[in-house]
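Researcher: Here's a chain I'd like modeled. Treat it as a single chain, no partners, no ligands.
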Amino acid sequence: MQYLCKKPKTVLIDLNDKEDDPKPVHLSIGDLAQKAIPITGEDTIYYATHLKKEFNSPISCVICTKPGMEIITGVLNENMDNKTSRVE
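Model: Modeled as a single isolated chain. C-alpha cells:
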C-alpha cells in the first residue's frame, strides 16, 4: 500500500477474473475497488493481468489486458531513446 499512496499513473496487477473464484489466487476486482482505488483515486489506471478468462471491467480505471496488448507508459526507461517504456 505504501506505493499506492504515491498515486502512480499506472499499475499492473494480477486479478482473479471472477469475484467468487473457487480458487482465488490474486485480488478480485472487488478487492481492488475496496482497497486500492480509494487510495489512488481513478486517475491511476490499473491494468489487470494474468486473467484466467477475459472480461470487460465495470470500473473505468481498470483495463483488462488481452494477449498481445501493448501498454505504453510515460515512464522514462534508460534503455530506450524516447520517454515511453513498453510492457508486453
